[in-house]
Amino acid sequence: MYDFAYQKPGSLADAVKVLSGDPDAKALAGGQTFIPVLKQRLNKPSTVVDLSKLGLSGITVSGDKIVIGAMTRHAEIASNADIKAKIPGLAHQASLIGDEAVRHRGTMGGSLANNDPAACYPSALLALGGTVKTDRRTIAADDFFQGMFTTALEQGEIITSVELPVPQKSAYEKFRNPASRYAIVGVFVAKFASGVRLAITGAGQGGVFRHTAMEKALSANFSPDAIGGIVTSSDDLNSDIHASSEYRAHLIGVISKRAVAKAA
To answer: Which domains does the chain carry?
Structure first.
C-alpha cells in the first residue's frame, strides 16, 4: 500500500467535511473492494475516512417501504425477517454475495457507491425503483447509475440509507463466476401493481441496466413464457475470459426466465 492518513470521524458532518475538502480523500465502508485496491496500489488516497462510527446501519419498515442504512452488512440483509417476508428477492440476493467473510463485512452503501458492473445490489435498487438518500439529497435509482463505476454522487457526498418500495413479487437469479462469485449475469425482477421492472447486472458494458422489452412483456403476462421469444442484442454487452458477449446475451434470456419463475 501507499502511505495515507486515516480518520474515523464520529459524525456525518465531520466525515463530509474531510471528504469534501480533499478530492484525494476516499471513504471506507466495508472495504471489500477498496482494501484490495489499496493493496494492489491501484489507488493512492491522501486520507482514508472510515465510516463505521457514523451510525448508518439498520433496517426499518416504513409503511410500504423498507429503509436500509448504508453501512448495513450483507449478512444482516440476508437474514432480516422483514426483508425475507416483504422483498425475498433481496434477501436471497444478499445471501449470494461473495463468501461468508465478505457478507459479514461488505455493506449495501459501499456496493452501490462503487457501482461495480458485476455487483449484485445495483440490480435490486434499479428493479425495485428505490431511492438513494445521501447527506444532502435523495436520488432515484434511474438517475443514480451513470456508467461503469460511475454514479450521480458528488465529491464528498455520502450515502446514508436506501429506501426500497415493497413489490408484490420479487426474485433474483445469477450465473456467477465460481471463484469470485461476482455475477456474469444477474437478473432482479420485481412486480408491482403498476407493472414490472427487470434489471440486469454483470452483462452490460455500461454497468447495470433495465431490460425494457422484457418489462413490457411481463407487465402484460407475468410468466417465463412471456419472455421466451425475446432476443437480447450482444452489441453493448461485456466480452471477457469468463463469457463472450453472445453468451451473456443468451444467459440474460435463461436467467431472466428463472427469476420470473421463482418470483411467480
So the answer is: 1-54 (3.30.43.10), 169-263 (3.30.390.50)
